[in-house]
Amino acid sequence: MAMPSSAGEETTTRAYDATTFQEEKERIFAALEHLSKEPNYLENGSTSKAEEHLASFASKEARQDRAVALALCSLFSPEVWLFEEGLRSDRAFMLAAVSSYGGTLEHASKELRADREAVLAAVSNDGHALSSASDELKADRQVVLAAVRTFGRALQSASKDLQADKEVVLAAVSNNGWALLQASQELQADRQVVLAAVKNNGCMLNYASPELCSDREVVLAAIEKYSLALRNASPQLRADREVVLAAVSKGGTALASASLELQADKEVVRVAVKNDVAALGFASHELQADKDFREDLLAAIRASRIWLGSLSAELRADREVVLAAVSILGNALSVAVPELQADEDFVLLCARSCMDDSQADICYSQAHDGLKQKRPRDIFFQAKNSALALPGQSNAPVLQVTLTSSAPTGSGSGAGFHVEATLASGSGITCDLPAASGAEVCLQNLAAHLLAELQENKKKMPGEEEEDEEEKEKEGNQSEPGALLWFTGDIVCWKMWTTTF
């Protein structure tokens, strides 16, 4: 133990005799043996206890000990900078190190980075190590082949002559398609090379020549790996039904790159939508409005997979579609047709359907300027939060039900609830409901009962005018837009969508 060099300072040195150094080696070897039996510990990338011991506590003698260094290399990749300079110039030690972890070549001496055996051992383990090899070995065909077979993009470190060697390039792009970018210009246009590249990574069709983007086999191989590679295909192949079907069956949104004719092909669109409902956003406007895709369209909108602005004016004027979009994102009202933006009843319904007040505020901000002048924000939100009609509004699309009482009735299979409720109009209603497990089921039953009664008695919402019988015949059985029911009181608020009153 050394004496303090000055007041308040103390320097500790470790003097080793043969016994203590041998004990330290035994501790390191014991740690290595223990780690060799815990493969998961090493596979998870944890710093080994032996390395940690060597880095923080080992003596200079341990750092210079060849047996310790070689033992570390036999189990995992050591950080060679932990060792003394003498060992880092030791060929046997570095050969063992680069065989375990090729990247160690970076720390080797200039002589060892020009040593063919050492470099070949390194690149066979990690092709990226080719970047640390001497220029002479970067031009060695066998060394480069070994490197690109483990890391295709090592081709960028190879000599220009080998970047133009077809066998070397084929080996590189088969391992990593992106290696195509490091190949010579001539080989980047070679059909066999490009086919191998897109079979590994379909994105590489983006770098193929126009001739190869028109090659059916090459395009189909690219699509098999990456459906969106269809966008790089020639116009002729993007209009090829078989090619487009192959793409949309892998990824529905590849429909965006199909020809207009195929975007209007119902079978093609159905396959795309089945794979990804968002594909409907790229279908023709006619198919977007097709009743067969109605549920898919609403599902995509409610899942934020389709932006309302990408739809036709007809759908942006569809109350149910716009309401579904605004309920997720208040800003969607900005792309609705002006008539809906100026419709007081509808904007209020949209604000009530928003996920939270911040989205409702955004929704209101997208309303027509005339509406905002007529209904200032504070008045509008007072009505929105109370679920009451604005002055002069018909309140047609909203039905508010306040549960005033709910008492159990009967027993056994005949058990249920007797419910008294008050509509927003002020009129009262009573009904007997079957027993339900949970408030939501009870509310569902109540909603179904109320709607059935409204339909049966042909009741109208407050302010709604009687339709002329001739107009009804003209309209046939068309459903009204979805309606939002608000339940308040002791039972949780809940929303229900219906198709007609």
Q: State the strand order across the main sheet.
A: 3-2-1-4-5
Give the biggest sheet.
5 strands, mixed
Helix/strand/pairing category: alpha+beta
- Subunit arrangement of the protein: single chain
**What percentage of amino acids are in beta strands?**
5-15%
Low-confidence residue ranges: 1-16, 41-48, 387-406, 436-441, 457-501
Distance between the termini: 94 Å
What is the approximate shape? elongated
> Which bin fits the share of residues in helices?
40-55%
Computed over alpha carbons, the radius of gyration is 37 Å
Mean pLDDT metric: 75
Number of helices: 32
Characteristics:
501 residues, single chain, 32 helices, 5-stranded mixed sheet, disordered C terminus, disordered N terminus, elongated, 5 strands, alpha+beta
Description:
Helix 7 packs parallel to helix 9 (about 115-125) and helix 13 (about 165-175) packs parallel to helix 15. The protein has about 500 residues and is of the alpha+beta class. It has 32 helices and five strands.
Brief write-up:
By secondary structure, the protein is an alpha+beta fold. It contains 32 helices and five strands.
Task: Give a topology summary.
Elements: H1 18-36, H2 39-43, H3 49-56, H4 60-64, H5 66-75, H6 85-88, H7 91-100, H8 110-113, H9 116-125, H10 135-138, H11 141-150, H12 160-163, H13 166-175, H14 185-188, H15 191-200, H16 210-213, H17 216-225, H18 235-238, H19 241-250, H20 260-263, H21 266-275, H22 285-288, H23 294-302, H24 313-316, H25 319-328, H26 338-341, H27 344-353, H28 357-365, H29 369-374, H30 377-386, E1 398-409, E2 416-423, E3 428-434, H31 439-456, H32 469-475, E4 483-488, E5 497-498
Parallel strand pairs: 1-4
Antiparallel strand pairs: 1-2, 2-3, 4-5
